[in-house]
Amino acid sequence: MRKAAGVAAASAAVALIGAGAGVSVAAPHASHAANPTMPTIKVTASKSSFKVSGSTTFTPGRVELVLKGVGPKDKSTDIISLKGKYTFKDLRADFKAFGKKEGTGPHGSTPKSALKHLNHAINHVDFYGGLDVFGTQKEHATMVLPKAGDYILFNNTHKLPKNPHTLTAAGTKVDRAAPASSATVNAVTKRRFTGSKTLPANGTVTFKNKSTESPHFLGLLHVKKGTTRKQVLAAFQGSGPNVFRNGQAATDVVDEGNSMTLSYKVPSGTYAEVCFFPDPKTGMPHAFMGMVRIVKLK
I want to staple 61 with a disulfide (CB 3.0 to 4.6 A). Which of 83, 174, 225, 244 is the partner? Predict the structure, then answer.
């Protein structure tokens, strides 16, 4: 799903914000040194290319993901595992079918036939987290890949997931330490955020999905000083003025019970925490259902 308004939800991770919210994109670079003891997967993405390097075979446990953008526009990637005989082709088919009918019901609702495909995908995929960057931004993440087996790193920049790369975890799980984090943000049941209300503008936060109802992601949107949650919601719906400024950072989708760290560098100021993942019961982006919180980045 690309846009923050009139979402065309054909992507497993709904890559955020920029174009749809009318936000111009800054190009900051995260200040973060790679952990030499941790497997590091490096992705460089542009509009037309998606290059993966670094560690693609490792022992289970925490890994680092680095995403560097090239050129304008947003780019995103996520790490997942698939259940049973469900395939990456099945994932694309489910989200294509969901996106085709999303919002086509009465009053912009999503038909049950489309929701069936969304939930089929959610029920057959474990989401471990990922990154969204804007322009030439660079971000770092760590997440735990808990058991031996194959994982899929894919390009989530476009309307449908593409460019799958297999990551192989072999052997016994190793407890590799997470980078130091100065704040924690939680996604919780009933589509809300809790946790620290002051986050670093240049540093690392921990994002935990404590919800029992849905995958979520954390987007940080720079907004004008004094902006309220109500004003952000109005801007998304097109019933209020543009309140957005340069400066954005984001994870990609994290499943219930999973967590990840996000390291980034953005301008300090007021930000809106948002999630646009489609609700499993309604198909509506979670931000439209109130999953917006105002925080400060210093």
Answer: 174
Q: Closest Cα to residue 265, out of 179, 201, 207?
A: 201
Q: What are phi and psi of 235, to 5 degrees?
A: -65, -40
Of 128-132, 228-232, 238-242, the one with minimum mean pLDDT is 238-242
* Type of residue found at 58: F
SS3 (DSSP) at 11 = coil
Dmax (CA) for the chain in angstroms is 54
Owner of token pair 């987007």: 219
What does the chain come to in residues? 298
In one-letter notation, the amino acid at residue 85 is: K
pTM for this model (two decimals): 0.89
Give the strand order in the sheet containing 219-223. 57-58, 162-169, 149-155, 74-82, 125-134, 244-251, 219-223, 269-274, 292-297, 198-199
Picking from 156, 149, 184, 111, the residue whose alpha carbon sits closest to that of residue 12 is 156
Amino acid at 281: K
User: Six-digit token pair at 41?
Assistant: 């997967």
